[in-house]
Predict the 3D structure of the following.
Amino acid sequence: MAYPEYLIAPMREELSRLGVIETRTPEQVDEVLTANSGTVLMVVNSVCGCAAGSARPGVIKSLESEIKPDKVATVFAGGDIEAVSHVRQILSDHPPSSPSVVLFRDGAPVYMLHRHEIEGRDPSQISAALQQAYQEHCSA
């Protein structure tokens, strides 16, 4: 069962107001993660405290980097049920995790930050981990 939209709307907006692409359906996920999409950071957003305190602020801070993904998109666990399920099918080799942050290159996952790697870390640590992944996978 999905959370009421009025509850999660502010959490969605924290990323979407910065131009992060919301993918609320499996079709929208597929549009963003095509075989020639370049690098895409997919944020599996959540209502939990580690999403609010670490994941979202860390993602936002990471995007201040000179080297960053071509696109940033998001799905909301507990909100975009079918879209999240579709992302998890794409990530079938990885255990489900929300929040999580996945870097894709041309539709294939190349880096994943799981919930257990988010919990207990502050936004600067999340940002640093993501920026290192950008250096490895997003630079020419």
